[in-house]
Here is the input.
Amino acid sequence: MNGLVQSADCRHIILIGETAIYNRIKSFLRSVENRYLVSFFKSDNAQKTIYCEQKKNTSQSYWTSVYDELIDLEEETLVINCGCYYIYPPALIGKKNLSLINFHNGLLPEYRGLNIPSWVIYNGEAQAGVTWHLICEKIDAGEILKKGSISIGQHEKAFQLCKRLFDLAYNLFVDLWEEWRIGKLSLEEQKDSKVKSYFYYGKAIPNDGIVDLGKDQPEVVYNTLRALDYGKLAIFPPVRLIDRDGNLCYLHRYWIGDDTFPAGGDKVFLEVNLNGSNLYLEVTREDGSSERNHNEHSGRDKR
Here is the structure.
């Protein structure tokens, strides 16, 4: 792994990634194009390719790969990776003129891997965070450039937490950039031995994507729902819900209310006592039938 190129020596900046944080940093970097050559590559993680939106202040656009784009570069280059899941090979990590930094949507070294906002919600953590770090051969293990944390709301869903984490990541990047620009950015080695750490692969799903009313504790039910909730984005498959009779159900919606069950309609509900509030789930059984069932699962029944 190389160190971080000094701003005075840097000639080329490359941004690679996708998601909202990519777009915000792209806008920021456009303001420094008069000092550096700046290139923007939007990633397609499913196809493992990148699309050149802009390269070296020209209008070139084309599909390519991260490796092909970086391997022949000769000038001192800072590569900013945010939302691109490409695993950089040793040939790029060891290339002397490349400094590779990565945005990680979790606190390091505690949480490595993918979809970390979901895992911190599922695990009942009080804090979530983000980390900017150097890329090395071990995933999410490079020296830390900047990191920060925020408190997780009691009822916060994954998509809501992600939005706030992106805001935090952007603000940290601006601080990182200014410290790098004036030569005062320090690096922090990750020390695994001092903390409990987790690693989550992309195919891993909190609670295996299942809510089992006959087995799961109320807190697990709610944490699972919030952890898998990315709104309209299909980050995870739809939640599979098993009622207390062992029937597979489809989840339509869930919400917190302080009143009684909503009136009208033939629907199945789950009620869980959460700090004096009620959690409701509206579901339909796999066979298409539905029925109104008060107290399908009570917060007092924690078997």
The helical segments are 19-30, 66-70, 90-93, 116-122, 158-181, 218-227. The first strand starts at residue 12 and ends at 17. Residues 291-303 have pLDDT under 50 and may be disordered. The CA atoms of residues 80 and 114 lie 18 Å apart.
